Amino acid sequence: MNQAIERMKRELSSMAAPLEGACLCGAVTYVCASVPVWSGHCHCRECQMLSGAPFVSAFSVEVRAFKVLGGVQQFRRRAASGGEVTTSHCAACGTRLFAQSTANPPLVSIFATTLRDPRIFRPVGNVYLSEAVAWVEPPAAIFNFQRMPPKAPEAIS
Ligand SMILES: [Zn+2]
Question: What does pTM read for this prediction?
Fold first, then answer.
């Protein structure tokens, strides 16, 4: 397990800060001043519904290292844990940019495809494989969880 954690840390630190992204229309931009603490693909049913895709790829950073410029609107939903997840999307074009959970307030999860260069994304895990569709093979990852990992950033879903 320690070896896996070392590999994870190497992968995450290769996503060099600052990490910059934007919505489709450009009205909202963001920058992260630190490397992620987690990254991966969420296969939960809600991410499928919200994105129109079989899974959502995201990375988590500390809120204090994250800056947003521009107007976002928010959508709130109950999480399986009983907490609340708030997803923020561009008020103009609707692009979903990031999510936060009351279960883990210090972290924000950013949707990796909104990075200016999404090729730099390094996913380390799959979560909610129990809800994955049967018609896409989940990407290979260091960690694979049927639901959430213990003490992982809930906001990733
Ligand atoms: Zn926009």
Answer: 0.91
d(CA 154, CA 29): 23
Q: Could you give the number of structural domains in the chain?
A: 1
Nearest partner of 124 among 104, 150, 144, 99, judged by Cα: 144
Q: How far does residue 9's CA lie from ligand 1's centre (Å)? A: 32
pLDDT digits (tens, 9 = 90+) for 74-120: 999 998 777 899 999 999 999 999 999 998 899 999 999 999 999 99
110: tokens are 């950013």
What range does the domain containing 8 cover? 2-156
Please tell me the distance between residue 72's alpha carbon and the centre of ligand 1 in angstroms.
Answer: 9
The phi-psi region of residue 70 (left if phi > 0; otherwise alpha if psi is between -120 and 50; otherwise beta) is left
Give the ranges where 30-122 is alpha helix by DSSP (H).
Answer: 45-51
